[in-house]
Amino acid sequence: MFADPEARLDALSDLSQRLLAAARARGATQAEVSCSEETGLNVNVRMGEVETVEATRDRGIAVTVYFGQRKGSASTADLRDSSLEATVEQACAIARYTEDDSAAGLADAALMATDLREFDTWHPWYIDADRAIELALASEAAGREFDARIENSDGASVGTGASLGVYANSHGFIGRDRGTQHSLGCALIAGRGDSMQRDGWYTSALIADELESAASVGRKAAERTVARLAPRQLNTGEYPVLFAAESARSLIGHLLGAVSGGALYRRASFLVDSVGTQLFPSWFRIEEQPFLHRGLRSTSYDAEGVATRESALIDAGVLQRYVLGSYSARKLGLQSTANAGGVHNLQVAANAGDFESMLRQMGRGLLVTELMGQGVNSVTGDYSRGAAGFWVDNGEIQYPVDGITIAGNLRKMFEAIEAVGTDVDVRSHVRTGSILVGRMTVAGDTAED
């Protein structure tokens, strides 16, 4: 880990200013610099034996220059003066030979963040490799001992990382950030031959003390794995589908892809020209919350220095805005939404209760716990993915199912959402509970009776 993170941030800040000055000296009208440093430790064990121990230390310096509306970029990991000078020169050479792009340039100076906050995201975990291995072994052992039908393992892992970053540009903006991320996971295999099933569990957090215990992760991985034994197929038909929270995130991910600037200005989205359109039921809301204390993606500024703000993406079921950086905004004749680099802590509002109450509300249908494949057409919104999970009847899980495909159209699926649960999966910056879609086509082995 970094012995003195503030000193390293000071050094990266000074470096960014040197590079900006070098770009100006070569005639660049605008320039921006991103500097990052990361350290980490990752261990993997399998079947009671250590497989890998990896200590990492990475660095990256990226320089982008503009000569009018001609852009050039170059990067390096070498901090020697000669390498830094060569990087700036290379970026400038590229810019001189590119064509003008009317959307190119820094984000507007008036949008730069001025209120730079801390969000308590720096909590290094001073763990050595021996202790990390001990935790991973304990997690795997707890899972393997949980049930005699667990005879194999895909292993357990422990990881910890810390990152420092500085972004600066020729508007005079300079932002500094630092963060940590820790994880512990286990994946197990139950059964034999063609009847084998695999599943797992993991925990992640900014603070090591907030991780689930190693034994708990192993046991949960075992419970999930054993529950999948002896799966059945379903009759093909139309059923309600409940996406468990960890699978429900993918639905929000498809929405984000469709309302992101790159897809929109290329006309490669089924949600082109959809701001102000009712996409979801009237109770449905998604809010971006970039200022959360200890949020996984909390920040005062985006990847271009634009000030972030709390705002709704969906309100009363209506799409309020797109997800834009400055380039895509200019291509669309709009203004940046401070989403260069992605979204910052999305919260999907719940309108229902916990997981068990969601099962009861569905009554009879398919619970999806795993999705496979990439069968989503971003232009039409057509959706078809392999799935596994459980058949539910009378509001209770009856048996596992796999070898099925769920299909629909995302626009119709969004309209058909009946409930969002309070069982939020906190391991992602997209925070949602389970999502119940009222009806989807489920392709199984035979037609529904």
UniProtKB/TrEMBL annotation:
Q: What is its EC number?
A: 3.4.24.-
What InterPro entries does this protein map onto? Answer: Metalloprtase-TldD/E_C, Metalloprtase-TldD/E_cen_dom, Metalloprtase-TldD/E_N, PmbA, TldD/PmbA_N, TldD/PmbA_sf
Q: Which UniProt keywords apply?
A: Hydrolase, Metalloprotease, Protease
* Entry annotated with the keyword Hydrolase: yes
Residue ranges of every copy of the Metalloprotease TldD/E C-terminal domain listed in the record:
236-444
In what residue span(s) does the Metalloprotease TldD/E N-terminal domain sit?
31-95
Q: Which Pfam families match?
A: PmbA_TldD_1st, PmbA_TldD_2nd, PmbA_TldD_3rd
Domain Metalloprotease TldD/E central, chain residue ranges per copy:
123-229
Q: What GO molecular function annotations does the UniProt record carry, in alphabetical order? A: metallopeptidase activity
Q: Which residues form a coiled coil?
A: none
* Annotated transmembrane regions: none
| Family under the similarity heading | Belongs to the peptidase U62 family.
Name assigned to this protein? Metalloprotease PmbA
